[in-house]
Every structure is written in C-alpha cells, then in structure tokens.
Amino acid sequence: MATITTPSNRLFSAAAAAHSGHRLPLLPPSIRLPFRPRRRRFSVSAHAAPLGAKPTVLVAEKLGEAGLELLKDFANVDCSYNLTQEELCTKISLCDALIVRSGTKVTREVFESSAGRLRVVGRAGVGIDNVDLSAATEHGCIVVNAPTANTVAAAEHGIALLAAMARNIAQADASLKAGKWLRSKYVGVSLVGKTLLVLGFGKVGSEVARRAKGLGMHVIAHDPYAAADRARAIGVELVTFDEAISTADFISLHMPLTPSTAKLLNDETFAKMKKGVRIINVARGGVIDEEALLRALDSGIVAQAALDVFTEEPPSADSKLVLHENVTVTPHLGASTAEAQEGVAVEIAEAVVGALKGELAATAVNAPMVPAEVLSELAPFVILAEKLGRLVVQLVAGGSGVKSVKVTYASARAPDDLDTRLLRAMITKGLIEPISSAFVNLVNADFVAKQRGVQIAEERILLDGSPESPLDFIQVRIANVESKFASAISETGEISVEGRIKDGIPHLTKVGTFQVDVSMEGSLILCRQVDQPGMIGTVGNILGEQNINVSFMSVGRIAPRKQAVMAIGVDEEPSKESLKKIGDIPAIEEFVFLKL
Ligand SMILES: NC(=O)c1ccc[n+]([C@@H]2O[C@H](COP(=O)([O-])OP(=O)(O)OC[C@H]3O[C@@H](n4cnc5c(N)ncnc54)[C@H](O)[C@@H]3O)[C@@H](O)[C@H]2O)c1
Ligand SMILES: O=C(O)[C@H](O)COP(=O)(O)O
Q: What ipTM did this prediction achieve?
C-alpha cells in the first residue's frame, strides 16, 4: 500500500494556465457541471431570477446577429451598448450573464454589484485581460471566451500592418489626400528574405508565421511554452528570447497580456535589437512600454511601428506615439472582419448558453477542465464527497472552528489516473455551505476554503486489486477540533468519516473507529450505546410513534455486549421530544442528529 500526497492548490490550474496564455487541452463542448441548480436556501443573490424564469443576458458590446439569435432562443437578451461603469453596475444585478468584447472593463465592482446573480461572463474574443478573473472566481462566476473564431482575422491584420508599414501605405495615402505627390519620401523596404520574429507562437502567431513564409520571409519564433515540432512543421525555428530580438528585422507580437508579459518590450530590450527594427503589435498595448517605444523610435533603434492595440484604449488624442510620423495605427481592428465577428458571436453565445444550463464550457478560463468521461465515472463519488463533507462538519462541536481537513482517496488506480479536483470542490461545498451563507461551486471552492482559513490536504492510498472503479473509499477527517459525538473521533484524535459507493448509492461505512453501513439519504441519527438486545426496537418504536419512517439501521460494534454505534436513517426530521426520548434511553451514551 502506497500513500501519495497531492498539493491542494491544483484545482484552478486551468485558470492559471489560461492566464499565462497556456491552455489545457480543449474538451468536448457539452460537459455538465455535476452540481444541482443553486438552491434558494443558499443563494447569495439578492435579486435572483424567479424560479423557472428565463435567464437574462446583458450584451454590452455589439455582437453578430447569429449569436444574438442563439441567445434569444434561450434567454431574455438586453443589448445595451456604451454603458458607463456606473450604468453597468446598476444593470448587472438583474442579469444572469454578461457578454463583452475588449471595450468593457468587467471589474471587481461589477461582480460585487451583481449581488451574486451574475453566473457567467462571456468574452466575445480571446483576450480576457479586461475581466477581473480573481473577482469572478471569488464570486463563483464562470468566465468563458471565444478563442478561435477571430484567429485568422487577427493574423491577416498583422500581415496587413506589416506590409502597410514596410511600404508607408498609411502615410503616403494621407499625404496624397493632402494634395502632395511625394514619391521619393515614401520609399519602403522589402519583406522577402528579411527575418520576422513571431513573439508568442500560439493561434494567431502561428497563422502570421505561415503567411509570412508565403511572402518569402525567414521566420523565427520565441514562445516559452510552444512545441518545437509544431513550429518546425511550418518551417519556423524556435529560438531564445535574446537571440530572437537581436536578429529580427521585424518583430510581431502575439502573446497575451499577463503580469509576466507586461512591458516585455522596454528600454533594455529595445537596446538589444538590431538598429532599424520594425515592430507590429496586434496583441495588447500593455506588452510594450509605450514611452520606451517612443524613445526607441526617436533614437532610430526602431525604424517603424504598426500598432493596433494600446495600453489605454482609446489612446489620448495627443498621444505622441499615435501621432508619430513612423507609426501606423488602427483602432483595435484585429478581430473586426464580418466573418470573424459572426463566428465569435456564435462561439460565445453557445458557450454562455451552455454555462447557464450548467454545462462546463470547453472555453471556461477560470474553472478546471474535467473531461466528460472522467465526469461520468466520478458522478456517484461527487455526491458522496459532498455528503461526507456535509456530515463531518456537523460532527464538530460548536466553537471549535474547522481549519485543517484531510481527505484520503483509496483506489486501485494509479494516482495520476484520478482527477480529484471535482471531489475536493464538492467536499469543500459540503463542509462550508452548512456553516455559512457562502455559495460554493467548482469555480470558487478553493477560494472560499482559503478565505475561511480551511486547509484541505489530500492523500491517495494505492490499493491492490482490480482498478475497475475509480475509487474504493473516501475518508474525510477534521483535525484539532472537538466533536459533539465523541465516538466520531478516530485513533489519531481527528473526527473521521468514511464512505463508499454501493450499487451506485453513497454509503457511510465508518464513523471514528466504528464500521457502519448506511445509505446516505435523508437524515441520520448516530447513537453510541452499550450493545444489548432490543435497542433497535426501542429506538424504532420512539420514531414510529411520531410517524417517522426509518429507512435503514446499522450497528457497528467493537465486540458483542461492548460499545456499539447505531446508525439510523430517517426520511423525516424527528421532533425535539423524540430525540430527547432517544437520548433518555439508559443504554444510549451519546447521540447526534445529522442532515445529509
Ligand atoms: N488585435 C486584436 O483584435 C486581436 C485579435 C485576436 C487576438 N488578439 C490578441 O492576440 C494575443 C494572442 O492570441 P492567440 O489567440 O494567439 O492566443 P494563444 O493563447 O493561442 O497564444 C498566445 C501564445 O503566447 C505565448 N506566450 C505566453 N507568454 C509568452 C511570453 N512571455 N513570450 C512569448 N510567448 C508567450 C503562449 O505560450 C501562447 O502560445 C492575445 O493577447 C489576444 O488577445 C488580438
Ligand atoms: O482579444 C481579442 O479577441 C481581440 O483583441 C479582439 O477584441 P475585440 O473583441 O474587442 O475586437
């Protein structure tokens, strides 16, 4: 038997990966979130839509017709463009989903103003730097984007800017329209044989590279996360950052804006570039230190720049960069083709509708991606996990404070085959919802646990035997607390419960050191007693008098006539009087009533 400990900070690895511009493999689009719909009892929304009512989607920036039609089939759609931040915050409390492009800042204030009603933010495009992802996660709001439909449009715009800049198209056009005929002033540079550096070899970058090869350019790329064979397949060489920037004649930027890419091009990096280098940016303004670029243009290190994106959009009317003679600019038009906008609209509408239906969208950027086949196999264990969390927390004596939770997954499968992110989220949901007003879901489970100071450590036990089922049992323990049911304390001094799946149904199989076997449905009475004949009948009679249906009973004992724990499943909640009568039975040493 081997024990493998897993750090619990992996739940949102997908979010972190997406944030760094590095996506996990995409999944089939229709994966259902294994959560029941939000129950009104735990709703944190002050303005939740009436049950059964259509959800409301606020479309805050222009979206293609085909996408709007898809949304209207499922939801009430409010198209309100050019909202001020204040207007957005006012409207949002009446919306279940919000769709934006890059022009709307979805700030923490927006999530706070939604008072818990906003469940989905759809970014109709790739870059999610205008959405406060941490705030979304903290509010349990899923963020989805449309990462593929505008790739070609952005790549084509990059190539258009490259060619227009090299041949001074914009400047010559403006000059001719101003009545001048300046043929010698606008002599350009050729592209063929020149070295183009693609910085960020993702979807757009690789399409730019492919097109630049067709123009006869020598293309190199730098991307710390890209696979060399993918680059090689289109005749592109992946090189180090320093080598890349010091050899390129043209540099085209295609990475996301993240803390690690912000101001990646700055005074220091411009100083390492070839004199006369030309820069194209259709990624994000913030990846260039714009003041440093201005200095590099003025000193001649950078001969020309072509910019579609700016740190502040729109840039100020007197921006020296925008007005610079050697700079060609467009107002963030990379994704703006008719075809791309229709495609993006459909891509985001499908993702938002799916997320509102409770499906885990393949393009979610702040929730773990769990493959469909894993989800279906884990489904019963997901319910077991929540019930164990819900049960174990009710065994804690008031005032103890839950801080340290240990979860053990026992399985005959290799540890890497078991994805525990969902299970951990559901245990957290079970642990936290009964003792707080928080609404916990797959998106915010780790955050809520951390916020409440609850540490969840996971370990895996590798069992012998055939690995048909993903799990044999799950054990949840809470350390450093007192229990209102002393028999739930294990040899290690922790409150401990253990459960298994039997015939597809979650069963409680161990409490403290006592083996029991009760299905985890309805409610549960746990009694510690001295094992003796007639106990089951006595308790059954008390409950029968009150017309309480007993669904099952199970006795786990240390040895005949010694201490035993009796677990009684009941369909209805017994009255205080009935519970008192049970407690008054002389052989019963302690008992507890638990809601599952
Ligand atoms: N101007 C526009 O209208 C427009 C349109 C589409 C996309 N974009 C922007 O273009 C960028 C790229 O989009 P995409 O769809 O190709 O995204 P992508 O995620 O497919 O590719 C981004 C690539 O950048 C790489 N990367 C991350 N950090 C890096 C670093 N420090 N150095 C080099 N590479 C790094 C990633 O590994 C990834 O391969 C995004 O910022 C997106 O918002 C702009
Ligand atoms: O990140 C993107 O997809 C592009 O920057 C497009 O932004 P837009 O939707 O505002 O055109």
A: 0.99
